[in-house]
Each structure stands twice: as C-alpha cells, then as structure tokens.
Amino acid sequence: MKISRFIFLAFFLVFKFGFLFAQDTISLNNLIDKSQKIVQDYPYEKVYLHFDKPYYAVGDTIWFKAYVATGQDQPSDLSKVLYVDLIAENDTLVRSMKLPIVNTSAYGSITLEPLAYKSGNYRIRAYTYWMLNFSEDLFFTKNITIGDAINRKIITNISLNGETNGTSSSINTKILYQDQDGKAFANKKVSWRLISKFETIARGRETTDASGQLSLKLTANEKAALDTGVLETTLEADPNKLITSVFPLKNAFADTDLQFFPESGELIQNISNKVAFKAIQEKGLGISVKGEVLDNTGKLIGKLESQHLGMGAFTLLPEAGKTYSANLTFANGIKKTVPLPASKPSGLTLSVVNSTPSSIMIQISTNQAFYNTNKDKNFYLVARSKGVIAFAAQAALNTMTIGASIPKNKFPDGILQITVFTTKGEPLAERLVFIKRNTISSLSLSSDKKIYGTRQAVKMNVLAKTNNVPVEGNFSISVINESKVPFNDDDETTILSSFLISSELQGFIEKPNYYFQQINEKKTADLDLLMMTQGYRKFSYNDILAGKAPVISVLPEQGIEFSGILRTSNGMPVSNGSLKLVVPESRFYAETKSNLKGEFKFEKVVITDSTEATISARSQTAAKNMMIMLNGSGFPTIARNKNIAEEKLNIDSVLLPYLDNSKRQYRMITQMLQEVVVKATAIKKSSHLDHPSLSGLATVPDHQIESDRFQGCVIFLNCLQSSAAGLIFSDNNFYVARVFNSGLKVPVQIFYDGMPVDVNYLNNVQTADVDNVEIFLKDDLGLVNRAYNTNGVLVINSKKTEKGKAVTAEDLKKLFPPSNVLTFKPQGYIKKREFYTPKYLTAASRTVGADYRSTVYWNPRVFTDKDGTMALEFYNGDNKGTYKAVVEGTDIDGNLSRFIYRYKVE
User: Fold this and answer.
1) Does 807 or 421 have the greater pLDDT score?
2) For 697-718, what is the mean pLDDT?
3) Which one of 304, 560, 621, 640 has the lowest number of neighbouring Cβ atoms within 10 Å?
C-alpha cells in the first residue's frame, strides 16, 4: 500500500472518528483548531504598492497604487485607512501621508519639489493602523532612488576600498569630479572632512589631478568609525563657487559570511542530509563561492559551489565522532574556513522534492538510534500555507523511511510550511517549499499597433482571465519609455514577489522578481534554495499550542476619527457634554456626547491634509471652564532599512540616462532657479539666539529641522522622535545618541521659545506653530548643562509674528482662545491628483513645445468588466525608443497577476 494513500486515509480518520490520546499528548484536531483560531481571531494584513517606475528625479511626481490584502492574499476589508511614509537614508521621516482605502485599494502621489528634495537613497513604507499590533517586518518597504538633474552642479563617481591592518583600518578613496557636460574639474582644490557619529575625526585639503580625480586615504583607529562615517568634500569650482558633496562610507570594507542550513533544520548522523548554504558580502548581497568540505581528519568529503546569488547545496552523510568544515574561496578573493553545524546522534529528517509540476514528494528518514526509541509511535505531518493548515495527517513510525506524494492542487500559490510533530506537539523537522500552480489568474495586454510615431495615440486592451475564464478585476497600469528608464526586471518589486515571498520571509530578498519571470528548471531550483536559506515569519507552532496570541493595542481604522476627553478646568471629566466638530473646507459637520468618563469620539471624519478643524464643547453649566483634550495616535518607529544592500552609491552614474532626460524635461525650471533674484527682505527665522538664556550655545546648531518636515504631522512629539538626528528617545526622554549608547543616561534639556520645559509639555505643542527645531549635541560652554544637570540641548522655536504688522482683534483672540474651543490642523487624507495625459488631436498640437515625459501613462483605476476587458487610450511623447507597459493587480477573488507588454516609437 502506498504511504500517500495511508496518509490521506489517516487524515480522513482523524477528522471522521478522532483518536484517544494520553494526557501528555495533543490531538491533531487540537493543533488544527488552535491554528485556525489564531488566523480567525488575529488576522493580519499585507500592503503592496505599485509604482509607475522604479526610480525618480527631483521635479518628478511619484505615482503609486496600494493593494491591501489579508494574510491569505485575499482583498482585505478590515482597514479603511492607509499610511504611506517617505524616509530618507539617514532614517528620518520626510513625508507622511494618509489615504482612504476604497474597495481594498488606494492610490496617491508624492511631488518631489526641487526646493524640498535632494538626490539620495530614500525608501517608502506603507502600513495600516491594524498592522501596528504585529511586527513592523510586515510593513511594505521599498527603496526609491532619487536623482537630481535640476540642482546638481557636479557629477561625481566614488570608489571605496577598505583595508584592515591589525587594530587600524583605512579606506582608499577615489572620487571623479565632472560638470554636467562631462568635463573634468581638473586641478581644483578640494577641502574634505571625515565625519563619524556627528564628530569630525579627520580633515584635509587636496587637489584633483588632470582627469578630475581626487585620491584620499581615510584612516581611523576603529573600523566602526569608518563604517558609520561620511565623507564631506567641498570643491572650489571657481573662486566664487563652492560645491559640497557628501558620500556615505558604509560597506566600504570587503568581507564575506557564509551560513549552512541543513534541509529540515539539523544534521542527523548516519542519514544523508541535504545542506543548503548562502554566502553574502558585508553589504548583504549574495556572492559566488567555491569550496571543499573536509572532516576533522582532513579527509575530503565533497565539494560545494554556489549556483545563484551565493546560494547552493550539497549532500553530506555525517558520521558519529566526526566534525566537518568547509574551506571556501569567495569571488572577491577572500578565503575562509567555516565549520558546519554539529550533527545529532539521534533524530529525524524531512526532505522534499518540488521539481514536478503536479505534486511534491516528501520523505521522512530516521537513523537507527531514533527508530529504536520511537518505533510504532505516532507522528503528525502538517502543511501550513499563509497561516492556514491546508493538509494534516498522522502516521505510525514502523519503518525508518516513509515517502509520500501530495498533489499541489491541495495548496494555494505561495510558501508552504511542512512540519513533522510528535504527539506532544514538539516540532522535529521543518521545510519550506514554494507552490506554483498553473491555475493562477492571467493578464494580457494588446495594442492596435506594434510601432508608433511620436505623439501618436496608443489604443490598448486589457484582458483578465482566471482558469481561462474572463473575470472582473482591480488593476493598475504604467507605461514608461524603457530607453530613458532602463532597469533590470529581476530587481523589481512586484505584486507577486511582494505578496508571495517578501511578506512571508524574513530579511532582505535579493532580485525578488527573478523567480517570477521566464520560469525554467534552474529558477525553480534557485527558488527552492531561497526557501531553505531564508527565515519564515509566521506565528510559531510553540506559541500557537501555548495559546500565546499577539497583543492587540489598536483596532482597525474605519476612517479618520478624533477622540479625547472633555474635562473641567480642575481636571474633572465632564459627562454628557455636547461636542461639535466642524471642518469648513470639506463642509463636514458632526455632533457627539461625552460619556460618564468624559470620553468622546468623532468617527469617519471627512478632512484633507492640513485642513483646519474646530471642536467646540458646551454643557448646561460652566461651558467656558471646560477643556478639550485630544488623544494622540500611534506612530511606528523608523527601524534600520532591511533593504540597505540595494542602496546606490553613485546615483549620478547609475541614473545617467534618466537624469539626462530629466535635465531636458526640467530645463525651464532649472533656468528659473538659477536666475531667480530675491529683492524682498527675508523674514528672519526664529532661533535660539533670540533668547538670552541660550546665548551660550554655538551660533549654528548641529542639526536643524525646518517646519516643512512636520507637514501632515498630528502629534508633534511623535514626529519629533523619529526626525531628531543625533538623539534617541527612550523612557520618555531625549538623549544624545552617542552618549546614550556609551551607557550614560543623561537627558537632553528641552526649551520652547527659550523657556525650559519637559517632554510632556511637547504634547501640547501644535505642529502648525513650530517654525524650526535646533539640536545641539554638545554645550561647549556648559552653561545649560551645568544649570540643568543635562547633556545636550533641544530647542523648539515657534513662528514669529511679522514685525510692523498691526495686531487685530482676531489676532488677540487667537492668542487667548477659549478653553472649550479647540482649533487644529490634523493629518487628513492627501488631496488626490490626476495623472496628466496630453491629447495631441490636431496637427498644431503635435508640433508645439517639447514632451520628454518618461512616464507617458499611469492609470490606477483599471477595472475589468464581466468580460474581463477594459479599453485604454493615451498619447506618446517626443522620446523615441522601446516603451514598456506594466499592468498588475488582483481579480475579484484575490488571485494575483502581472503582465509586461512592449512596443516601439520611431
């Protein structure tokens, strides 16, 4: 009798009749029920953002559409509000947006204004409020490289080569300086500073050579000082023109690491084990490696060689009393000897063959020691996909090798977690496999022509099918000039790679789309290696069986809401108080009553970002003595970028074709910025120098945050925590990071308009009132530090009233507002913008002006009808070349799909 038939029979018996177990065992039904309860009671959400293109330039608009799904990749109706943050490479929040989720999706845009953004490595993260209850690893994150063709006066290319000699380290640095036309800045003076942890640890002055190249050797006593450092250079282009450039030095040192991953978790003696491995460079990218596996006597056991992005596998039969190691040679020339994990004298292995299209082959093997101890005992085989147990069976161990074949049609597309348990619920072996069936929905695009002229109309048709049947769906489409926006499709983040892989696995996934295009046997094998070498992020079975559930602190948002407490001036709650909310711009009006605890809430408020809203309160007695206190909202911390390996060092060079096109596209803006002459007297910014008590501080702060950085921020303190460079917020206090990390916990002294305050005072500060924030990491004279027993100074300056302007009665009212009226500007929904698509309908319109758009069409609202179709029409620009249309999304049942179509413009 085939073991597969036995397993299916056992599976049937478990659910049909059940089994009797001793008190120290768990039933298979119990394991399934507890797992299902976690999924039902604590559903989690995923978010994916489709962008119109992979990178941008200053002056561009980032267009995106968000898809919100459950953990099972089905469209999610749980949350109705989405948050999208743009974060700079120094982990500071640059832009935060709130979008309404309608029919499980949302769309928006970010305009990269030339005066507000600069060239750099940014990242975008997206999440719902409900997702704050779970790990931030579940947030959608994607690196966004932004170049600058408007403000750039110089093109640089830097190469770094780190060296370590004993206790000292150095970086050999070469920087090439060119102007925008590629002409070298030859024989120019360059001043430079090496900055680490906000301190200058080296400086100098050199001269570029005839080719415009500068060579430096940066040294430090500790390698860590260089790893965390930046190089700042100032080029004297001419006597009246200084150009400053900043280069991060992280990942300058060539290093490698390699980890071994036995197929089911551990090496077991006297069982042939498949061992996967992954070799990575210091910056996190995979690196090719070759080597030999030796035992402790020096005997050659076998050879290994990576097959994809540093990943590979070999077979090992561990013997009792022996240890094993690998002598390795990496592609960068580094040689290392790495020990393999120790083998266990008794155990069980689980191996999976996933190369056949219709089924997966499973084999459970034991060595003699394990078999003798556990003969005829029952074990469970459980397969879980996206948190849901899709297959479960029980079998008795009556042979040392058990094989099974399970049809793939029992599982959805995605990662399958296969685990072998004891009847006590202890996991013995585990393996991840990726299920890819041929029944997933399909998309296709067609156009009326294959070759077009410039400014010619393009007519396209979208066709969506599932199992070859036309289906309704929710999609988005982008059409870009691929000649101006070259990009390796393997590096792209897609709806398939995001929902099926990145949201399921831990850590950085290199080239995620490689596994989803032009699939062949090699890519299937490479994907299987990824399954063996990457961590899984689902709830552990140990937590499930122990009844350990996530801590739920916030509920899913059904819209924008404002809540708080109504109190009297002496702090007592006001029950049954009447409150009224008015948003004049959106003509929104709502009323509510406070409960016995003084609590109130306004739900589903319609308000756009930074729009003024007013809440007024009244009661039958003492209306003017009431105070309205709004509750704050949670704001996630900004963790280290898990995709840091993808950051680009030489953005000017990497994005050269795109930036050359942007230079033409934004030529008029560039000229305006260069020619602008400011004749009016500049309004003096608020500063610590306005207050005598702070005159002892340095004239220029270490860091300054302008008010536009807090745009859209509801709770000022929350946003300040994530944007205060050089400071750490811990235990309800700010600390200087370098001092805090050394173990000395002395808080920073905070001032608001020269007045010393504590952190709690900042809860009452309105973001709209803040002009700027100054951060002093040190107090050179010590006047503040000695007076307040603090270390470091944080100064919040409010906006000034323009001098010479008469104070009106309305101004006085604003200075002394009634306590029962609260006027504020909360973070509302961003204002929707429509992608501009010109129409060249006449002969005259086809010859006027210049159209160098790299994205010629973006439509986030592609909804196929019951016939699975939707017609689209747009016009090309003036750029010739190959155009790439990308459409992706989900059908009505949540099946994921993506399609690429190309045409030419000649």
Assistant:
1) 421
2) 79
3) 640
According to the model, what pLDDT value does residue 18 have?
A: 31
- Token code pair at residue 866: 């019951």
> Is residue 877 within 8 Å of residue 454, measured between CB atoms?
yes
Task: Find all residues with CB under 8 Å of 513, minimum gap 6, and list them.
Answer: 489, 490, 491, 492, 493, 494, 496, 497
| Cβ-Cβ contacts under 8 Å for 521 (sequence gap 6 or more) | 355
Q: How far apart are CA 309 and CA 510, in angstroms?
A: 8
User: Do residues 224 and 247 touch, judged by C-beta distance below 8 A?
Assistant: no
Tokens read off for 544: 């499930």
Q: Which domain holds residue 618?
A: 560-633
Above 50 in pLDDT, residue 23? no
Determine, yes or no, domain membership for 131.
no
Q: Which residues pair with 452 in a beta bridge?
A: 905
Of the candidates 437, 453, 475, which is a domain's last residue? 437
- Of 504 and 680, the one with more pLDDT: 504
Are residues 715 and 795 both part of a single domain?
Answer: yes
Name which of 145-154, 313-322, 367-376, 691-700 the model is least confident about: 691-700
Across the range 483-512, mean pLDDT stands at 94
DSSP 208-257: --TTSEEEEEEEESSHHHHHTEEEEEEEEEETTEEEEEEEE-TT-S--EE
Would the pLDDT of 671 be above 60? no
Query: Domain tally for the chain?
Result: 5
Q: Which residue has the tokens 């899913």?
A: 556
Contact 216, 190 (CB under 8 A): no
Residues 778/701, Cβ–Cβ less than 8 Å: no
Cα(668)–Cα(614) distance, rounded to whole angstroms? 42
CATH number, residue 325: 2.60.40.10
CA 326-330-336 angle, 5° bins: 40
Q: What is the pLDDT of residue 113?
A: 86
Same domain? For 216 and 271 the reply is no
**Average pLDDT, whole number, for the chain?**
87
Ranges of H-type helices in 512-601: 521-533, 541-545
Asked if residue 337 and residue 370 are part of one domain, the reply reads no
Residue 900 vs residues 626, 647, 863: alpha-carbon distances, Å: 61, 25, 17
CATH code for position 162:
2.60.40.1930
Contact 742, 202 (CB under 8 A): no
CATH number at residue 766: 2.170.130.10
Residue with tokens 């001043």: 191
Identify the three-state secondary structure at position 877. coil
